Amino acid sequence: MRCRSRRLPALFIVFLFVFASLPAVAQTEPPVKPTPVCNADRSNWTVGVVFCNDGASEGYTLFSPIPSNTTYLIDHEGRLVHTWASPGEHRPALSAYLLPDGDLLRTANIAASAVGNFSGGGTGGKLERISWDGELEWSWEYSSENFITHHDVEPMPNGNILMIAWEERTEAEALQAGRNPEIASDSPGGQNNIWPDHIIEVEPVGNDSANIVWRWHAWDHLIQDYDPSKDNYGVVADHPERININYAGGSGNAAGRADWMHCNGIDYNPVLDQIAISCRSMHEIYIIDHSTTTEEAAGSTGGNSGKGGDLLYRWGNPQVYHQGLSSDQQLFGQHDVNWIPEGHPYAGSLSLFNNGNGRYPSYSSVEILSPQTNEAGNYTLQSNGTYGPNAPNWSWNLGEAMYSGSISGVDMLPNGNMVVTHGTKGTLFEVDSNGEVVWTYINPVGPDGSYNQSEPVPAGQRAGTTANAVFKAHHISPPHPALANQTLTPLTYVENWQDLCPAEEAWGWDRNGDGCVDDTDVDGVSDPYDRCPLGDDTVDVDQDDLPDACDPFVDSDNDGVSDEEDACQGHDDTVDADADGVPEPCDELVDSDNDGVEDDRDQCNGEDDKVDVDNDGVPDGCDDRIDSDNDGVPDENDTCPDEDDTVDDDQDGTPNACDDTPHGTEETNLETNNTENENTSIETTTEGNGERLATSLTFWTTLLLFVGLGAALAARSRRNL
Q: CA 280, CA 357: separation in Å to the nearest integer?
């Protein structure tokens, strides 16, 4: 015994070791459900992926924070995949594009060193092409006292690049072109000049040069009805193909200033060989012909359209060309016009971000419009002199919750979703084709680098903005050629973040963002292994191997009736012998024959105990001999019910009570009287003779008795003698 007692602690320790190891063994089993595409709802987060669900598109997002010299590529979880830092340490100005070979084409803001008098928003002046490995492969500046690039560029399939640029025109040139001198055109530097936009197509050469192979100038396509003695005079409404130099559509400080058009977005359609541009201060988008030569682009003939560099199409604000009313205006300081790619339901139409400047209440929206063309593919005017459609073909917004007074954009995905950049708040949304937000990412990078998670993003320099602004973002799908043969290992988040469970692989299962695999329903089973995310996996009262919270049919007593409809919990509801709707174990009165007598006291089960016509205490249903008239004859043999069958005076087989002649007929009575006249009187069957017969019999009987007595006394007397 002493030896055995020494071994018990050792055995107990071994048991504890084995028991403690069981959870680890269980975790090696495969999860019961696949990893979600995206799974986040993080109200406590201030940056990064604050929300996403399985509607989010797998892939990557490219964005360049305006305060930073770095462009970021993240996956849909918000994890950093790759970065490109500007070799010249420039902030963006303002766009960046991933090229098919993995290089990044990035605009650069050199306003601080530029020699011109240009200082409007989006000033650039330089382009950088950066390899996947971060090496500068090509850079080129387009900046002087007379011109500078700004806002956006467009990579072309042939390797060339389209660029938007300002050119400075003097006040004298503006007046000669028909500009109304009463329109304020002071540039920020104080000179009374004007900056119309132009487009150049450049062919990169070497690592720091370029050839300008094509040009288009808005200055070559003006119209004015102010001064007939100046250039470009005409009826504005008759020339929708030209730009009204006297339209001042900017708001606030931008109204009528030098940055008169403020074009901020450009796109190229290689199938149509056309260019689309967005001009914010005009509240319009334009389409021009790229198939022209530079010379043709300066005039009104030539190219596929035969219209040279004149506008082929315009949309958004017909007031600019003196058509329509203010109520017809559709665009309000818009950005980022693009043709929608193949695969999308609106492929071939145009998309843009409508900032909503001057719209009340203030809100931004995404618009899709389908320009109207004829059979030849030419854009057509409507009967009212405007270009259609009269309103967007499709529109989306978040109301006043999304308002960006500047920058911003939209990237349409082939699957019908879109990535929307709420630029002034540095927020990106992916929205599905039903208009539902399926992914929300807040840029975590500001002027001094990454922000700390859960700390508020500082306010920006303008009211209603934050210090993490983004011009526009692009979705990069996994099949993108730039990603071929590249290492795409996701790292951690871009923001500074504390992982509370560094040893756990929680991606996809960390909805609240603490770094730990979630147990959303707090049932002790982690989400990857949780068979019922709605409740406790261990609660399965009907033992059908399906947790009750996710069991559409919980039947704890296995009677085929769900618990919520079970009339007798714990018992078989189908057992209801008396069919009264109350199952037997829960029925206070089980009366299977419905005679009002419970089965336990029922003398005659299946029959009505209250039916006992002969009142013998045995219910008729179980009475072998029912004699309801108590005449000793069972009812089934009873000749005269309710009467005594044994009374049959005339012995004719019919009891007196049911016999019309209980004492026989009159002739029969006479014969009987004659036959028995000497010996006795008998009863007749008629009620009238009964009394007389009885009297007669009594008389004769008495007489005979006396005669017989007298004879007996006489005989005795003789013997005595």
A: 10
